[in-house]
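dumping this here before i forget
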Amino acid sequence: MNLKTTPLRFDPAIQQQVDRLLLEQNGYAPLDWLLAESRLFYEDYEAWRNGELPLLDAALFGDPERIQAQLSAAGDYAAALGLAPETQVFQPWRGEGPPLRFSADETLDRLLRTRYLRADHQAQMDLFMDNASSVLAAEVTGALLAGRPQAAAEALTKLTRADAGHPQLGAFERLLAARRELEAGPWEAEALLARLEDELAPLAQQHLDGGRDYLIPFWRRLTQALGARPFDSQRPRLHASYSAGQAAAWREVLDAVSAAPAWTRQPELLLRAGHAAMRLRREPEFLLHWFRLCWLDAPAAERLAGLAPGEWLRLWQAFLELDAEPPVSDFPAWLLIRKPALARGLSAVLPPGADPKPDPKPDPEPAPWPESFGLCLRLSRGGFSCDQELLATRRRLRDQAPWLFEQYMQARQGD
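structure:
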């Protein structure tokens, strides 16, 4: 990307977040960061763009001072990379009116509307904006992103008259035609998915600044078309949990996943549920989906680990670096040993069956996790009725999982 190198004096998490946005969108914009980091739900952003929310900061999740500090650090990091700042102006999508404001706090408002672009890209944009046809192309782009096909058509007509050889004309025409078709009639799910992936998403990403706001209505329509269609592991994207995720409708993702039979045995559905839980800031649910993947599909667990909050990600990395090289299926139990308080947070989301007794009778339906996890959960919760019950639980862990028992006893020695 031909960016400056910078010493590691920034929060690594901030660096990672900004670097990811740079790769995806060739720049860093605070609004994209808020959406990507679940500080803002898309439906609240959409309501703000439609003029239904006077200010956006009231819809943000988290401590305002911390968010402001993170945005400031992200901007400093982007500047240290040699990116050029640019002030963004957001017009309402519906009706007329003055530019939208993020916050009544001038500092936060300025932070939120300042995006950063590569210096060479900024220079190219300045040259383009000196050209009248480029101004009209920006009008087409804005109208398509705002879901205003009539305004896009009018701007496109002006652009065609001003510059019949403009390189974006063909793409704009196809994107506008698809938007009109979306409003005109029903779509068949398979055909819509194919068109989105093969045509519309690539075009929008290239010609509409990433295309998020243009594409989301299509993903919503696909979710409607899919309805209650059963999940097919051979065609996993033809399921409402996938299209709802593309539309940032995280509650709908969880609803679609939970409606699928035996979803806890499907790695792809667990990945989607984990992603949605993290976006909704439901950490215990995220951890449980992650644990299920550890027991079911180690590569999928590795994929979901990338969404784990900092502390859990660091512990995951520490587990993978252990000299004993334990199987990934031991990670949930090991994590309980390292963090016994986690047991309390999991209690609300764990189904029955994770709390074995010292001398259990055979269960007609075994718990959907290794017995060693249930034993570590029991030991982490504590509250044994007598010392004999505690000792019996420890003996079972020793017999079932000697390595985990050794880890447990070492942790107890450190208390």
